[in-house]
UniProtKB/TrEMBL annotation:
The organism's taxonomic lineage, starting at the top: Eukaryota, Metazoa, Spiralia, Lophotrochozoa, Mollusca
Record-given protein name: B box-type domain-containing protein
Keyword Secreted (UniProt): no
Domain of life, per lineage: Eukaryota
Species whose genome carries this gene: Mytilus galloprovincialis (Mediterranean mussel)
InterPro entries referenced in this protein's UniProt entry, alphabetically: TRIM45/56/19-like (IPR047153), Znf_B-box (IPR000315)
One MF annotation (Gene Ontology) recorded for this entry: zinc ion binding
């Protein structure tokens, strides 16, 4: 530009005082070029995304994008414009603020990990101390106290396992969060160091979207505590809805059918009664009755009664002739040996059966059998999660 433009026209441009003016004779001077360009980003070669043959000349603040002359004339007539360098400075400053926030978050997460690891170490020390006391106590007591000590030790181990799992899960979660923030911070720092304006504006949108999606609010942690572990039991309150009178002396088991009928059984000594009844007023009207001892019963998905008797098979009632019949439910007798089903539960197509050895109370098998919708033996459980045999008597 000429001297007149330099003195009268150029100062009228916004941010003109930040421009650097070089004498035309010094343009070829490499020292001047390096000094002027090493700390500046040049925006003169950014192509317009809507008009590929045009170079962007302004930053549209209304649309948050770079525009060329054609954009200004056609679609951005009444919008607010700034120089490209202003748009760059604005976005770079936002990115810097987000980076500072992520850095603080990283420090918070690091401190939290240290707290959790300290909690884990303290829990481990407490576990070892209590465990040693239990072992010492176990050696000096007699048989009954020994059983009690083992029970306490198992409870402690279970609680310790839960604490370990919960704390480790929380540590892993915090570490994963910290890693995510570190990755975001690294990308932001790389983006701030880009000297190519075209590349900067191509990548800044994705970064801004990811920053909006991330939650940089106040982080909260449980510090290894577990409310569930403190209150493992749920209080259940049972209320009587309606009472019915029955001719049976006692009621040991009840099963409710989908059609409104009820099966009840009463076992007294070596005899038992199974009744199918229908609620009528406050009475249970007898529909049918069978002399049989029933250990447990359930209603199938098809509204049929499933009975555990003193037989080694699950039985049902053929109501047309009033007799027991064996059902096609595979207990896996060939594999398990001779066992007697003593408990049964039916939910939709799933049937679960508990069975014991036929010469109980002598030592023998105690198993839980899961069957599929076809009545096939799908899985047999003989030991609990601690590798201990299932209880002597199985009731579901």
């Amino acid at each position: 530009m000429c001297q007149k433009c330099k003195e009268k026209i150029h100062p009228k441009f916004k941010l003109a005082n930040e421009h650097k003016i070089v004498h035309i004779k010094d343009i070829e001077n490499k020292e001047v070029q390096v000094r002027n360009y090493e700390n500046e980003i040049h925006f003169g070669d950014i192509k317009c995304t809507d008009h590929s043959d045009q170079t962007c000349c302004m930053y549209c603040k209304s649309c948050d994008k770079l525009v060329c002359v054609q954009c200004v004339i056609k679609t951005h007539k009444s919008h607010v414009f700034e120089e490209i360098s202003s748009g760059y400075s604005f976005k770079r400053e936002n990115l810097r603020k987000h980076t500072l926030t992520m850095k603080k978050q990283g420090e918070i997460l690091t401190n939290e990990i240290e707290k959790l690891e300290k909690i884990q170490e303290d829990n481990k020390i407490q576990y070892e101390e209590v465990n040693e006391k239990i072992i010492t106590h176990e050696k000096v007591v007699k048989d009954e106290i020994e059983k009690f000590a083992k029970s306490v030790k198992n409870g402690l181990d279970t609680k310790w396992d839960l604490i370990q799992v919960d704390t480790k899960r929380e540590i892993d979660s915090v570490k994963e969060r910290r890693m995510t923030i570190q990755e975001r911070m690294k990308k932001a720092e790389d983006l701030m160091n880009i000297k190519d304006g075209n590349k900067f504006f191509k990548n800044i949108k994705d970064m801004e979207i990811s920053l909006k999606e991330d939650n940089f609010g106040l982080l909260k942690f449980n510090n290894g505590s577990s409310k569930d572990a403190e209150n493992p039991c749920t209080k259940i309150e049972l209320k009587i809805g309606k009472e019915y009178l029955t001719t049976a002396d006692t009621v040991d088991r009840v099963a409710h059918c989908k059609d409104g009928h009820i099966w009840i059984c009463s076992n007294i000594g070596k005899s038992g009664i199974l009744q199918k009844v229908k609620p009528t007023g406050n009475m249970l009207k007898e529909i049918s009755s069978y002399e049989i001892i029933v250990y447990d019963m359930a209603v199938s998905k098809w509204n049929g009664i499933l009975l555990c008797t003193n037989d080694n098979k699950i039985q049902g009632i053929d109501e047309r002739i009033g007799r027991l019949r064996n059902l096609k439910l595979d207990l896996g007798i060939g594999i398990l040996g001779y066992v007697i089903p003593t408990a049964i539960c039916s939910r939709e197509f799933l049937i679960v059966v508990g069975a014991i050895n036929n010469d109980y109370p002598k030592h023998g098998k105690r198993v839980v059998i899961r069957m599929n919708e076809k009545g096939q033996n799908e899985h047999v459980f003989e030991y609990d999660t601690y590798g201990q045999p299932i209880s002597n008597i199985l009731f579901l």
